[in-house]
């Protein structure tokens, strides 16, 4: 618990997170920053992968579990999201809210 856990940024950042539980973050658990967008040579952002992860009881202004900024690419597979919420607006629970309870998706690509 406490704060956020992971910030992924950098023009050529490529991360695969597998089998991790993100629990009770008081700020968005994982942020994929727009700074992970185009590199100086114009190549697109590399894809960040989350596989077999559990996101439980996290909260953040924009997405309790994951916030994906513009110019990012995120792939999520076989992962569980439960009781994440956005503190933006009304602070709804159970993966809902104005800012995206579980995921705030502003990514170029998310699948």
Question: Would you write up a description of this structure?
Answer:
The protein contains no helices and 13 strands. With 111 residues, the protein is mostly beta strands. The strands form 4 sheets. The protein has a 4-stranded parallel sheet with strand order 1-4-8-12, with no helix packed on it. The protein has a 4-stranded parallel sheet with strand order 2-5-9-13, with no helix packed on it. It has a 3-stranded parallel sheet with strand order 3-6-10, with no helix packed on it. It is globular and about 40 Å long. The protein starts with 5 loop residues before the first strand and ends with a strand. The model has no long low-confidence stretch (mean pLDDT 81).
What's the gist of this structure?
The chain is mainly β and 111 residues long. Helix content is 0%, strand content 36%.
Q: Report the average pLDDT across residues.
A: 81
Strand ordering within the main sheet: 1-4-8-12
Structural class: mainly beta
Radius of gyration: 13 Å
The arrangement of helices and strands along the chain is EEEEEEEEEEEEE
- How is the main sheet built? 4 strands, parallel
The helix content, as a percent range, equals under 10%
SS summary, helix count: 0
Distance between the termini: 27 Å
Shape: globular
Secondary structure: number of strands: 13
Low-confidence stretches: none
Approximately how much beta-strand content do the residues carry?
35-45%
Helix and strand topology:
Layout: E1 6-8, E2 16-18, E3 21-23, E4 30-32, E5 47-51, E6 54-56, E7 59-60, E8 66-68, E9 73-77, E10 80-82, E11 85-86, E12 103-105, E13 109-110
Parallel strand pairs: 1-4, 2-5, 3-6, 4-8, 5-9, 6-10, 7-11, 8-12, 9-13
